[in-house]
Design a protein that fits this description.
0% of the residues lie in helices and 56% in strands. By secondary structure, the chain is mainly β. The strands form two sheets. Strands 2, 4, 5, 6, 9, 10 and 11 form a seven-stranded mixed β-sheet that branches. A four-stranded antiparallel β-sheet has the order 1-3-8-7, with no helix packed on it. A hairpin with a 6-residue loop joins β4 and β5.
């Protein structure tokens, strides 16, 4: 059973930074796969934030994250990161990591990020 565990969330001030990590365990594949970060604020639907591909490391970002967030991965450590800079109050949400591999989607339990203005 693939398990994803997020870490690095917490409280930050507006304009500050946080770095999220997501580690995959019991995950073995020789094929390419995709890591994604999503977030969900109270009363809102879960929204996609950013993605990175395992092989080429190609990235893509939601407009809300462009220029402020950086997604990266370490394929050896089976870990994905999200460096969040210039945080805003509207970044407050539960952040979820997602791993898409072989037609399957795996999710972490989510981690709270709170930005105070």
């Amino acid at each position: 059973q693939v398990q994803l565990v997020e870490s690095g969330g917490g409280l930050a001030q507006a304009g500050g930074s946080l770095r999220l990590s997501c580690v995959a365990s019991n995950f073995y594949t020789l094929s390419s796969y995709i890591w994604r970060w999503y977030r969900q604020s109270p009363g809102k639907e879960r929204e996609w934030v950013a993605l990175v591909t395992s092989t080429a490391g190609s990235t893509n970002y939601a407009d809300s994250a462009k220029g402020r967030f950086t997604i990266s991965r370490d394929t050896v450590k089976k870990t994905m990161y999200l460096q969040m800079n210039s945080l805003k109050a509207e970044d407050t949400a539960v952040y979820f990591c997602n791993l898409h591999s072989g037609g399957h989607d795996y999710w972490g339990q989510g981690i709270q990020v709170t930005v105070s203005s």
